[in-house]
Fold each of these.
Amino acid sequence: MNPKLELLQPYPFEKLNALKAAVTAPTTLSAISLSIGEPKHPAPQFVCNTLIENINTLANYPLTKGSDKLRQVITQWLNQRFSLPQDALDPNRHILPVNGTREALFAFAQCIIDPTEQATVLMPNPFYQIYEGATYLAGATPVFLNTTKENNFIPDFNQVNEETWQRCQLLYLCTPGNPTGAALDHNTLEKLIHLAEKYDFIIASDECYSEIYPDENNPPKGLLEVSAAMGRLDFKNCVVFHSLSKRSNLPGLRSGFVAGDAEIMKKFLLYRTYHGCAMPLANQAASEKAWADEEHVIENRRLYRQKFDAVIRILRSVTEVSAPDASFYLWLKTPEDDETFAQKLFAQTHITILPGSYLSRPVNNINPGKGYVRLALVAQLDECIEAAQRIKEFIEQNYQSN
């Protein structure tokens, strides 16, 4: 067996299941799950119809590169969403459809890391666990950059020393971030692009939450957008990952794309050709429809705004809480240890949330996720309101009694 498998920690939800198993939730209350970032809004019906209409394509092998039409539609979406020059992206050279960003983020490290060079991979902390697993199995060493309230939940890249930058082969970004919802601004992304050029590493920007934001006139910035604004239309060392899972409520479709530096994409396509991970043709046809439509995405954001407004209004009387820059998560400070808080909450209210310490690693004796819990506001509005009311009463009864 690959000995590097021993470096992998239990997935956060394995830890959560064990935590819940030690107590019993009240059967008099309905179960409400706010732990998993799985959208519960309805999938667009026109996408479902397209999937069914193309079911006969199961008789055909798909190309790893995807269809010309899908790559063109993705290119048009990127151009419109991130204000890119119309001829900056070549659908044949810069775009690659993938089966969701999770598998692509993992595979990307396996493709580009040279393990003979004592490689390091930088990533935010807390973080999406795939970054760490991908790093270990690619033969590299993860370097965790704490995101805390003091730095607005943005990694402090100024604290990275020269030696670490020199060994860096890959920098994982998550913007907007999971679990904090913090989004990197233009200046930070520009600085990172300069660092990538100076030290010759690749930036993998996970932007799967980029379309869940509160202000229709102020969407989060993207890595390719900033690269283009800098006049770097070759997008050197810049690669972005986007998904339909959150944007279009289609987590089961397993559809996304990777875009950026044409030389990197060429090598990644070669890797994936051997990897055997082409997107089924029916999924490609459905994805074309989803990327080409914005109305359902605008409605999706409206529903999340409703939930954030309602939940924050209820919780602000018992705890410090504010809406994130983007994403559908609340990163909530707890009045005691996050594991204990989550376990007690489940035992008393039948609500499942995720301890923040499960999403991070200790660095310099500090676990930046400790003392926080992640709430995914993915349930329907009435369930989110009910959950917020129960959490409010739970905090009042357990932490604010005289």
Amino acid sequence: MPFKDLKRKQLAASIAGKQLLPIDKLGQRLKDFREALGMTQKQLAKRLKISQSAVSQIEENILSSTLKTITKITAALDCELLGTISSRLPLEKRLLIQAEKVAKRMLNRTFSNMAMEKQAPTKEAYNYQLKKLVNELIADPGPELWEE
């Protein structure tokens, strides 16, 4: 099977399965789709009423394009743009990391003042307070969790 046919089959399967890809790979996906259709940049540019160099620039650096432009391109290729936002970490894990950061900052201020007065608590007491504060912050996360 020629490489071009294999590439077209892989692209078709990916599109049919509505496979997600990072936004920075979207330009390459549009290029691959255009090429799989046998369409030149010049032909796509004519459909979009833009220059061929603009199509080239969009395919090379999609991040410089507006969502409106990307939508127009997908429509010109008879496709639809589907979007999602996915977290690099599970939401609960992200909250836990941030809550621990905030709780440590809060406790370190308090405990350093206590240490100056020679009233520093034990490591167990610190860990207990840390866990308690983290749980409170996670129970009802609000804007204070994201203050720097």
Amino acid sequence: MGITIDSKFKITEHIKFITDRCTKLTNAFSKSAKINWRLRHEALKTIYNGAILPQLLYAVSVWIDAIKNEYNTKKYVKVQRIISLRIAKAYHTISHEAVCILTGLTPIPIKVEDVATLYNITTGGNNHKYQIDKEENPSSWL
């Protein structure tokens, strides 16, 4: 299925595997993203949205509770920070929040919540908080 679960049914190994793979992918194309090669930020955002973000968000509805762990959130933020610095062609001294504003990317913890919520709403699973169409008894009609 593509999700790594350890013997204690924790998703930490999956998050570590995915973040390591995305970091390697980012470093592989960062050689072509240098300022001298003139790979524009639009192309880098397309790579992020098409290659890295889908890997980071794969099966997010299964492991959404794991992102509430600070260790897992830091791993995801680290991956997004690396690619955001490449897109903005900024120095490493800039904060993650500032580089997200410069690049126009949604911070990854918020993006994870949005994708999981959208999935739960559209599939009807676990959406008791987001009841869109609720059943009404005809006796309560006007």
